[in-house]
Amino acid sequence: MSNSNLFLKSGFVRAPLQNGVGRYVCQLQRIVLKFCKSHGGSRGLRDYIEQDLVDFASNNPSVVVYLKPRRHRSPVVVAEYLNGDRVWMSMHNKTHSEITKWIEVLRTQQGDVSATRLRKYQYTDYPSVQGPWTPFTYKDPKLNVAELPDPEFGANNRLPMSATEQLKIMFEKKQLEIKPKEE
User: Does this model's pTM top 0.85?
Assistant: First the structure.
């Protein structure tokens, strides 16, 4: 173990690793904007609250937004994530555009992963030279450029005709037989 890891807390990645494969779940749970109504260092955060906070809240309904006015204090943004991490960030003398960018960074990250020494659940003395297996390991590379749905890659082209499809064809044949007799 190197000296850089001695004072870091160790833990496992607690956020979903394949977040966004099926659907995306925003990891930001709550954001608290602490500011002073009269302090000059809070001007950028006050501008953000007046201009962009309503749009942020409507675009991110899963994030709870709290405003906490405090007298004669420096502005602070505290972000809390689904995995339990809290990130505290000072916004003293930051402009409106800088605060917009930092809040977007807080919204898109998973928590304070940089301050954690990551550990694995599995361990082996002989790691694989080929790399980890994924569901796409043995897939046909033509799939990368194909326009889907493509019958060449679908499983339906190898299946026999279903009973419903057979009934539809029989019904259409009967309809064609009945129509010439009626004329």
Answer: no
pLDDT at 131 (0 to 100): 74
Q: How many residues are given for the chain?
A: 183
Q: Which position has the token pair 């005709």? A: 161
Position 130 in a domain:
no
- Sheet with strand 76-81: strands edge to edge: 64-69, 28-35, 76-81, 86-90
What's the pLDDT tens digit per position in 23-57?
A: 778 889 999 999 999 999 999 999 999 999 999 99
Domain count, the chain: 1
- Please check the confidence at residue 72 and state whether its pLDDT lies above 60: yes
Task: Return the structure tokens found at 153.
Answer: 């890659």
Residue 181 inside a domain? The answer is: no
* 62 falls within a domain: yes
Strand 76-81 versus strand 86-90 pairing type: antiparallel
Q: Is residue 32 part of a domain?
A: yes
- Please report the pLDDT score of residue 51 as a whole number: 95
